[in-house]
Design a protein that fits this description.
The complex is a heterodimer of chains A (178) and B (482). Chain A is α+β, with helices and mostly antiparallel strands. Chain A is 48% helix and 13% strand. In chain A, strands 2-3-1-4 form a four-stranded antiparallel β-sheet. In chain A, α3 runs antiparallel to α4. In chain B, α3 packs antiparallel against α5, α4 packs across α8 and α8 packs across α9. Chain B is mostly helical and 482 residues long. The two termini of chain B are 22 Å apart. The chains are: A alpha+beta (178), B mainly alpha (482). Chains A and B meet through α1, β2, α2, α3 and α4 of A and α1, α6, α7, α8 and α16 of B.
């Protein structure tokens, strides 16, 4: 289904945030914001939920912790128990202190890389992906709010333009997508 | 107009900058032709680096007998350089991770290049244990892989194996942390680049980053969590490096103070290396507005604190060697200070204990020239520290008939000098092609810490001039991420 997308460009993050607040109060749905840096406080205004990547990092870390524990128990205790200077290594608990450093390192390794990979996949930012920002200036000093007419069916395009004009935007662009 | 920061805090970005000017200042050196000086330095570094590579090939072809080791001193040059480089490689992640957790905004001007420095230093460090195997191609034997030797596993009780895991985790996590921060900045360069081939390169490097609100939301959380896991990592890595010595029974090595003492020493030398590099870089790349006296002063304070911790550790070691009542322990320290290696010991003491104390004087720690000199002195001192700890503890063992000295061979020297060359090759390439400042992160502190915004000389945006500052009561400081 064809949809009309409106891009309103701003030259200041605070102006955009102020504008977004006013528009949302009037019932306008903001589809997306493109900015060169994180605009703090914009997420609750436009309805972006807090990411759950932190939980994922914890789960990846837990996986690493388990793998390291199981691995070292197998290598050092069950498969080939070593008798080093008569030090006891009959059970995992006898030797656990020596395993702490690697258990920690492996937990961090899994948490960090697991989270980073998930982050890149969820963002769909991978090597060779094309840029999707509507204007190259949005990675420099311009900020763009995106609206979709299908999500704002209670307004006409002209009404939306009029409202946007009051928010201190500097450029307006309209595109039809299929 | 935006969040007010205490007026007595010195601004972090000098003069009046706009968002666009920050982009310009950081991207210009990448887009312009490299200055002649860059080519000269690059050529010098490359020649030195290639000489080192030549020495490494000779070493691998001939065997580690080409080192200056002997039957008493079986561990000297290689491990010294390994610990020295790993130590230097501790500043970057400390700056980006620990300072992020502590909400230190000044980190933003220096974290990118400090992290790059870290990664290259850890590369250099990693080289030493690899070549010391003598047979580089069996390096994978350090991993617990199923193998055809029966079920013969690596020894998980050994600190040397802990090192394998610690260094590889540290290197890879630092690399990921650095790259995730680089992606949005690569996108900025991509969107500015006119020439087709570089544009294509930066398109690939920027992973299609578009700066969506949701992506920034994830970006901030990922940075925070990575900082959270990297912080204990920084401390664990050098603790584990110190276990290489501390878990042995050699007098002079067998000390419980080693982990904190090594970590402080690592941060100390790492910050010194950051100072050395940044003082040159800010001048060469005209970044004086972003990295200025205040940043240098903050780093000098870190150098002073960690240098003092190191100084206290040296004295504690001396005290304990006497107080323990163990004569071998006491001898190890008397021998360090007064034996044939006295010059190394006293170089270490002068460089590491006395020089950072000069930073108590404000004019000195704000002097760029003085800082530059001290930063090099500190790294010379930290090299001697490792050499003193390692060589003086073993060159006179329990049997006086086997006492000996360590003299580095020319291959030893070549490999060491070569790693310095390679390090600068990498760093110069980084400075040429990568954004050396976290330019997009810097934009987030412009309004709270920029000089013109702090003294209200920055022009008020026409929109707010007309409408007042309504809607800004909830303006959040950039540091309150979550």
């Amino acid at each position: 289904m064809a949809d009309i997308v409106i891009y309103a460009m701003y030259d200041d993050d605070d102006v955009l945030k102020d504008g977004a607040k006013k528009l949302v109060a009037k019932g306008v749905k903001v589809a997306e914001v493109f900015s060169p840096f994180p605009i703090h406080g914009i997420d609750p205004i436009i309805g972006v939920k807090q990411t759950r990547l932190g939980i994922m990092a914890f789960l990846y870390g837990l996986t690493g912790l388990m793998l390291a524990t199981i691995g070292m128990r197998y290598f050092m205790i069950s498969d080939w128990p070593m008798d080093i200077g008569g030090k006891p290594n009959e059970t995992y608990l006898d030797n656990v202190l020596a395993f702490v450093p690697i258990t920690f390192e492996f937990t961090v390794l899994c948490a960090a890389h697991g989270m980073a990979i998930t982050y890149l996949l969820r963002n769909k930012t991978l090597p060779g992906m094309p840029a999707q920002n509507p204007d190259p200036r949005t990675t420099d000093d311009k900020f763009v709010m995106e609206f979709r007419m299908s999500e704002n069916s209670q307004f006409t395009a002209a009404e939306l333009h009029a409202m946007l004009n009051e928010t201190g935007m500097i450029e307006l662009d309209q595109k039809e997508i299929h | 107009m935006s969040h007010k920061e205490a007026a007595i805090r010195e601004p972090l970005i000098l003069g009046h900058k706009t968002y666009h000017e920050i982009t310009e200042d950081v991207c210009k050196p990448i887009e312009d032709k490299a200055p002649r000086m860059w080519y000269i330095l690059f050529a010098i570094a490359l020649i030195i680096g290639l000489y080192g590579v030549g020495c490494i090939f000779y070493l691998l072809g001939t065997g580690i007998g080409v080192w200056g080791l002997n039957k008493t001193v079986g561990w000297a040059w290689d491990i010294t350089n390994f610990v020295w480089w790993v130590g230097i490689g501790h500043a970057g992640t400390l700056i980006s991770a620990v300072l992020l957790l502590f909400r230190q905004k000044w980190r933003m001007a220096i974290n990118r290049s400090a992290e790059a420095m870290t990664i290259f230093a850890v590369f250099m460090a990693g080289l030493f244990p690899l070549i010391h195997m003598g047979r580089l191609w069996v390096g994978y034997w350090t991993l617990p892989l199923p193998n055809h030797f029966g079920s013969l596993w690596v020894n998980f009780n050994s600190p040397l194996l802990w090192d394998v895991f610690a260094i590889s985790t540290y290197l890879s996590v630092s690399l990921v942390f650095w790259y995730i921060g680089l992606i949005p900045d690569f996108a900025t360069i991509r969107d500015r680049m006119k020439k087709p081939i570089p544009k294509r390169m930066y398109t690939i490097l920027s992973f299609g980053w578009s700066g969506r609100a949701k992506h920034w939301n994830r970006f901030e959380l990922v940075s925070l969590v990575l900082a959270g896991v990297a912080t204990p990592l920084v401390f664990s890595v050098h603790s584990i490096v110190s276990f290489d010595f501390a878990t042995s029974v050699i007098p002079g090595w067998h000390t419980t103070i080693f982990p904190p003492y090594f970590v402080a020493g690592a941060v100390f030398s790492g910050f010194a290396m950051v100072q050395t590099l940044l003082l040159v870089m800010r001048k060469a790349m005209k970044l004086e507005a972003y990295i200025h006296t205040k940043h240098v002063e903050y780093m000098n304070i870190v150098i002073m604190v960690t240098g003092s911790i190191v100084g206290v550790a040296y004295l504690t070691e001396l005290f304990v060697s006497w107080y323990s009542g163990v004569e071998y322990e006491a001898y190890a320290f008397i021998n360090r200070a007064t034996g044939p290696y006295w010059w190394a010991y006293w170089s270490m003491m002068t460089c590491n204990v006395i020089s950072p104390q000069l930073m108590w004087f404000r004019p000195l720690r704000r002097s760029l020239l003085f800082t530059f000199v001290i930063s090099i002195v500190v790294n010379i001192g930290m090299w001697f520290e490792r050499y003193v700890i390692i060589v003086t503890s073993i060159h006179r063992d329990y049997l006086p008939s086997s006492w000996s000295m360590h003299f580095p061979s020319h291959i030893d020297l070549g490999v060491y000098i070569g790693t310095i060359g390679l390090f600068f090759v990498f760093f110069l390439l980084f400075a040429r092609f990568f954004p050396v400042l976290a330019l997009n992160e810097l934009k987030t502190i412009l309004k709270s810490s920029g000089e013109s915004y702090k003294n209200d000389t920055a022009p008020v945006h026409p929109y707010f001039a007309k409408n007042g500052h309504a809607g800004h009561d909830h303006h959040e400081d950039n540091n309150h991420n979550h």
